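[Automated response] Your request has been received and processed.

Submitted sequence:
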Amino acid sequence: MIHMSVQQKRGSALAHTGILLCTALCCICTWLTNGQPYITDEGEQAAVMGATFPANPMAPIAGFHDASEVIGFVFCLGAFLALGLRNRCFGNRNSCSVKKL
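Generated structure:
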């Protein structure tokens, strides 16, 4: 069992490293293709907007800011359900309806 847990930890470390490497490769690719023309779905020619160094560290923060309302809603819903389940607010109704059936 101990040997298996060591292998699982190695697997998760490789997964995190793989995600980091993929992110770095995407940043490098957008930096290399900056300004290269491509054809849009409408048939127009446009230029690739490359990633800049200051934009890369700010991308997760901007993404969190864009999704903050959804994150807040899910957090509040989870807190409501956790408190309700801890205080057994939902159990009484379910057990009563089961007894009637």
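Summary generated for your ticket: The chain has a mean pLDDT of 75. The first strand starts at residue 37 and ends at 39.
If you did not submit this request, please reply to this message.
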